[in-house]
TrEMBL record, chain B:
The lineage of its organism: Bacteria, Pseudomonadati, Pseudomonadota, Betaproteobacteria, Burkholderiales. Pfam families: Fer2, Fer2_2. Keywords: 2Fe-2S, Iron, Iron-sulfur, Metal-binding, Oxidoreductase. It comes from Cupriavidus basilensis. PROSITE patterns: 2FE2S_FER_1, 2FE2S_FER_2. Its EC number is 1.2.99.2. One of its GO terms (molecular function) is metal ion binding. The keyword Ion transport does not apply. This is Carbon monoxide dehydrogenase small chain. Residues 3-79 form the 2Fe-2S ferredoxin-type domain. Its cofactor is [2Fe-2S] cluster. The keyword Disulfide bond does not apply.
Amino acid sequence: MNAPDSQHNQHLIGASVKRKEDYRFLTGNGQYTDDIVLPQQSYGYFLRSPHAHARIVSIDKTEALASPGVVAVFTGDDVAADKVGGLPCGWLIHSIDGSPMKEPPHPVLAQGKARHVGDQVALVIAETLQQAKDAAEKIDVQYDELPAVVNTAHAASATSLVHDDVPENTSYVWGHGDRAATDAAFAKAAHVTTLEIVNNRLIPNAIEPRAVNASYTRQDDSYTVYVSNQNPHVERLLMGAFVLGLPESRLRIIAPDVGGGFGSKIFLYAEDVALTWASKKIKRPIKWTAERSESFLTDAHGRDHVTKAELAMDADGKFLAMRVHTTANMGAYLSTFASSVPTILYATLLAGQYTTPAIYAEVRAVFTNTAPVDAYRGAGRPEATYVVERLVEAAAREMKMDPAEIRRKNFIHDFPYATPVGLTYDTGDYEPCLARAQELADVKGFPARREEAKQRGKLRGLGYSCYIEACGLAPSNIAGALGARAGLFEVGEIRVHPTGTVTVFTGSHSHGQGHETTFAQIVADRLGIALDAVEVVHGDTGRVPFGMGTYGSRSLSVGGSAIMKALDKIEAKAKKIAAHLLEASDADIEFKNGTFSVAGTDRSKTFGEVALTAYVPHNYPLDKLEPGLNENAFYDPTNFTYPSGAYICEVEVDPDTGESKVIKFTAVDDFGNIINPMIVEGQVHGGIGQGLGQAMLEQCVYDDDSGQLLTGSYMDYAMPRAGDLPDFTVETAKGTPCTHNPLGVKGCGEAGAIGSPPAFINALVDALSPLGVHDIQMPATPHRVWQAIRHAQAPN
Amino acid sequence: MAIPIRLTVNGRAVDAQVEPHTLLVQFLREQLRLTGTHVGCDTAQCGACTVHMDGRAVKSCNMLALQADGASITTIEGLAPEGQLHPMQEAFRNCHGLQCGFCTPGMVMSAIALVKQQPNADAAAIREQLDGNLCRCTGYHNIVRAVQEGQSAMHGVSAE
């Protein structure tokens, strides 16, 4: 149900059109997975391991099976007996020694061992959720507890092994860049800046918890699965081809309205598979909705890097080389894209906006007895940007240079630019973004504001961050060479109906991004029809031809480009139909503002007339042209896109309490062309909110000994609330359009989360540096800031 | 053991039987099928389940259906029964104060109650008062704008 809307089609590209989807969300008519109840509905509940690491000695489900309302109880033995495979990892990484990464089995229900608190041990299905929960309490599981591996930095040296056949708890040790050239540059450097950096572990926390409603149809031996997911076709591919051994025709995945994803709903989860498999066992639909506690325990977490980073410079502050050693926590199992995050999506971004000629990165990926870690808004790129931008600002301080000037000195100016870490930036222009951000942030007035704050006993600081990201995943051939086990194109279908209305089927998935509006703007603008005449369908493998889904800020640049390709085909065919109707040659037909006309004449046909003719082909070149107006396109990008921007954060710290407050946050981004500025700004706001959440508040904490999650609820995990965040000053630069996709767009979904953490921490360090504090880790809570101040001021 | 309750929901009289442990949000979502009210957490922190009880914003996950016996409940579905958006709903749409839409019903219900209780709340007070409603998409910037715009629109308007 969408709003009645009569927004005209003129100049839809670049207009802040109000969203078509809002009416249903604002009136309670959205339909999320948990809102769906199917006939004969049953309810699932997962019994989860209370231990971080334990051998499962025995499971007795006798009493549970006899509990009221129980339909079935399944354990690891049951899925093993049915030869249900483990969850696959979608990206193969090779270690420096050439060996493939260790990818131990990721069973759908635990087999032999439980490897993190919350690991699913049994699935109980009952008539009601309450009955399923009651029965789960009656399952008797005997555990033999094992020492837990928790700490990222110490995992490789731990005596306990998360997987018995994975020595040193290490999946891979991966290297990237020219090590010899980097070491040589360091040897002749005039100055080296070194930082020890922890990129704090985060819990994604989409406000809609994960949910699944899986059903089985006897008639054709098929499954329909409603799931809160960002990429239903990928879910179908992984679950069907790799786990359950089902052809595409027998598995339909529907991701209806999805309440936020941020990466955490990209992945194929064990619950999705267990419920789908079980729906055939009991021949009834099963619904499971995660409680928030389960989300904390089992949604794939984000970040969790421990890094030593070094930057070598000449005496003038020109960057010579960068060297980075990172340990990345994978959690207990390799989640769907986990292996690509601290490698391909991380080390390739370490050039940032700078001409650093030599870069080498080495990454050790370790298993621990914690929830799996995978892509979370930005995925590798925030971690890279944090390393680069913290190093650059620390270098400026050490070299006694202005932090903006050291950046300017090292900016890339000539495009295309091939970095030493494997990417070729097609376009960019960094100086204007930085200059505009400085203007908006009133950097000139900062010394006076700092002085005024000082008079009040407060400390002011200003911090920069000039980020680059690689979006628009991805050229399939390049991704394949880098280890991707799938293509990364996108699909769009344009179905013009007889009445001239249009349905767009896209493989992208909207879970807040507003595709129903943005994609409709593209189509309505191109075809010269009303926005209301365009409906966008996504999130259903039964309706959309194919797709790779939404992540990595790829929807507009890859999904939108597929739609543009399909529109090219529509226009080409429609011109032929119009030519026939107008008795002209195809080449003489012009199409503008929804009208086909013969060049140089006043003869014309409307888009609606042509559409009707395609479906009522009484006067039609049937000998040369098929009836109908329905075109499909696959678009595979030729390069990544490279959004960039300059962020400036101004903070004020109360040295007595350690409390810090963002006074002003300025973001100037280059996203190339913009379709809907309102939506783009909203994406940046949200990204900054999450980035500041990481920098100021959020921290996933496991007990180092027991592996128990200590931040397992909103009472313990500090989500940013309205009062924690400032207003944002956000502007998009005139920008440099992407050179290789038809819309000239780059992607804006992750920028805020990538650019903002270093801007905040740099500002905080700037504020505290007069007190002798030169580094602080995220999240910079008041307690941590207060301690840093006390520590710096303590007598030696 | 089901217990009878009688209440008003979105202006309509409702007679129902509820189990003693049934939460108000479960009653609304599962028995009345008013699924616009959402559940985002299990500790009464996120506010996605916010509804109005006798004009006051309450978290419907944090009270029993029995406690609503005799009360008048308004859910997000009751704000625009004729299809014409409430000024606060319109303000959220106009200011792009929502993205995925999941926190939105609770946010709108909280915002209306906030503006009624504090007609002159400024941006800082609005941020403070929205403490009980989590949004992961918007960074709150446009939500604050929306509440301010809804506040202006509601002045002189008898809402609900």
